[in-house]
Write a structure and sequence with these properties.
Layout lengths: L33 H12 L5 E4 L10 E6 L5 E7 L2 E6 L17 H8 L1 H23 L1
Antiparallel strand pairs: 1-2, 2-3, 3-4
Organism: Sinosuthora webbiana
Pfam families: GSKIP_dom (PF05303)
Family: Belongs to the GSKIP family.
Length: 140
Amino acid sequence: RMETDYNPMELPNNTGFEEDSDYRDFEGTDVKDMRLEAEAVVNDVLFAVSNMFVSKTLPCAEDVAYINVETRERNRYCLELTEAGLRVVAYDFDQTDDRLQTPYHETVYSLLDSLSPAYREVFGNAILQRLEALKKESQS
């Protein structure tokens, strides 16, 4: 859970934010902006997939964001990110299919692990390389 060190008193009254801006529901310390969360998810695993980015066409909100991912097998997915976790909502970029009843995954690692054997291999190799580097560091 992401906490912020924000004091609502720091903003002047005439900030110029419109009523329909992203800040209208800002309540200080307990806000979790899903777009920021989605960007973090993408940055975490981008190296292990062919392509991954936060959707620019589907609406991001405080409680939901959409991430497009193309696995190394060239399969495309649109993922929904909410407090419940991540799940596949379509089998193409920037789409949602209400008929899809896919399970939520707590982490992007778990989701990609279930979708992409190539992701699993690349991610596993990255962990092994990191462990080897740490081992060498501790021996020197």
